[in-house]
Amino acid sequence: MRNAVLILATFPLLAGCVVGTVAKTAVDVVTLPVKVASAGVDAATTSQSEADEKRGREIRKEEERRGKEARLAEERCRKGQPVPTDRCVSVQPR
User: Fold this and answer.
1) pTM higher than 0.85, yes or no?
2) Which of the ends of the chain has fewer CB neighbours closer than 10 A, N or C?
């Protein structure tokens, strides 16, 4: 009997939780399409800073590739095994 009274006394307290949960769910349902649409637009567009970062990475990668090719060409020239595209500078003794 005491347990039944205790359970019945907690119902009004739980009702507030249920109302709050229902209200939060309703807000989530209403705002979900807006969140999905904004995420789609954000994924489809690139900001200027993102474009700058991407271009910077491309430039650094190209510079690294050119540096590697130059070092390999220099090594081939030093060893006396240049390929036709290498621009070996022959050093003339004075």
Assistant:
1) no
2) C
